[in-house]
Design a protein that fits this description.
Blueprint (H helix, E strand, L loop, with lengths): L4 E4 L4 H14 L3 E7 H7 L7 E7 L1 H10 L9 E7 L5 E5 L2 H4 L15 H10 L4
Antiparallel strand pairs: 1-5, 2-3, 3-4, 4-5
Helix pairs in contact: 1-5
Amino acid sequence: MPDIKRLHSTYSFQDTVDKLRAALEGKGFTVFSVIDQRQAANSVGLDMPPTTLLIYGNPKGGTPLMLAAPDFALELPLKVLVREDKDKKVLVVFTPSTALDGRHGLPTGLAAKLGGAELVIVAAVGAKY
């Protein structure tokens, strides 16, 4: 299984960020932080393409996983990256739940409980999965 999933968004960069945030919150996820990595780079005199990281989760879903394997807290909350490539295409990148299965002692099959977020992400950006 690939460690990351990379999708092409059908929307502009900012629309993709906005649609992801709205879709995640609309499905009951908490967006804990939105980090504009391009702005951070600019603040120290560096430039990079538009790049934003959304950090999100649902304590009701994540807490049982951390109780089952306390070190799994390194993987939570979940993250989704939105970035623009050199051709100005908008990419949406995340770690699929299948890649998290068994990490940090998490019992096999429990990571699948995180898979619902992937469907929300795919639908929000009009991508094929």
